[in-house]
Amino acid sequence: MLARRLLAVAVISTAVGAVTTLPAAASAHQPAGRTGLAWPSMCVDVSNNRGNGTLMYQWQCDSGNTNQKFVIDNGLIKVEDTIGKSPVMCLDSSNGRTNGTRVYQWQCLGNANQLWVVQRGAIVLKSTLNSGKPLCLDVTNGRGNGTQVYLWQCDSGNTNQKFVINNGQIAIKDTLS
After folding, report:
1. DSSP 8-state symbol, 90
2. What is the mean pLDDT of each run of 10 residues along the chain (177 residues)?
3. Is the peptide bond before 31 cis (omega within 30 degrees of 0)?
């Protein structure tokens, strides 16, 4: 079913892209290699599992998908549908503080692995903020369902580290139209 939907989106995108010419100004703001309608809007997603250690990844944004709904509360990024239940789950960086450290969900403890600061569209691990090498949430160079989310040294020019938080969703900015 998912494969059919993805194929249908690809066919429609190809057909629309073949007849739609982007103005020069619009195409200049897109990441290298991206053409109009090449990617759907992508969001941070926690999958259907609410257990400790479940990896975070990106998935096509769906405003009705509870796997993509978060609440930022005193630096904690909580999985919305776990609030009021036990345990409440949070975005967690593990104890790793190097490029490529995977990000997952873990029971909210309020420790340094779970405290984040949102700055100019970047989501920064608070404990690294004043380290000289702050680490940011990063979605890699890929823009597809299931592509990993991890930590990477913050770079204000890196589009993999730019997000728009709206209505509980953490959307990857360069995938928004």
Report:
1. E
2. 36 32 28 52 95 95 97 97 96 94 96 96 96 95 92 96 96 94
3. no
